[in-house]
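Trying the structure run again after the queue cleared.
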Amino acid sequence: MKRIIQDLNYNQIEELVLSLGEKRFRAKQLYNGIMQGKNISQISDISKAFKEKLLEQFEDSAIEIEQTFLSSDGTEKYLFRLADGNLIEGVLMRYKYGNTQCISTQVGCRMGCKFCASTLGGLIRNLTSGEILSQILKVNALQGGTVQKRQVTNLVLMGSGEPFDNYNEVITFLKNVSAEGGINISPRNISLSTCGLVDKINDFINEDIPLNLTISLHNTTDEERRRTMPIANKWSIAQILQACENYFKKTGRRYIFEYSLIHGENADKKHANELIALLKGKPCHVNLIRLNEVKERSLAAADEKSAQAFLATLQKGGISATLRRQIGSDIGGACGQLRAGYLNSKKTEE
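Done. Tokens:
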């Protein structure tokens, strides 16, 4: 596999252009073409000879959209094929304030969370910063967006993979995606979800990227959390809360806890009251999620009545909380479901 040109920032592209004997202004033409989601071969304002030089070193395209699925609620889910043939997925969710794209940071995942389809095949490999960025560039172009008028307005790093398990590439991506002159999505419109890698959270505090830090909590005690999240064997809830406090002190931004409501596991009044005791007075928000059931797992979603009761208890207890609108369930909206289903179907055909 050749290099991915989307891994380069503008200054690096300028250096590349000059090293290939091209005029400096070609860098802007090349960079603009890339930011428009075009393959190298599709950029019309650079010469054929220049393209040939580039294609000796770089893949024509970092990713292509293999399949698109449209939900009845307008959500779109994409199966992306990488240049090496690996598959990842992403989701475009439509809201009143704009379009939010959920993107992947790894092929598979090694965190082993019991409610997530991404972990079923383990971790295949990390994505490069350019492969992460290309998901947005392709979808923005597909939706008729440009660099000046984006159709992708918000990002969530909540697709396949644990972002902080691919720390260096994710940091490079965050800097490139928010760079002026590029697709330029503000960190304030980006949410990063982690299962709680405390050491990486503390490292991230010093990166000066003030995004929305989101922690997958999903339970109120370490003992119960270990049943569904192996990472809890390494990092405790107390350590996570301390890292979140450190983040708030540095950035002034409140943090968010994701809490999937799982029948018989964490969705009763007892757990709601425990969550209140755990988070009362902290500068945080709780995002309750109706579990998107994975057929390979035995966990079941809490019903609507239980979800609403849990939300009401939190709000009555003074916790800022919302119940996430259920979207994309008819197209396998949860992390890893589309890729897992596609791979299984291919095995069946074989």
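The two ends are 26 Å apart (CA to CA). Worth checking whether this holds up in the mutant runs.
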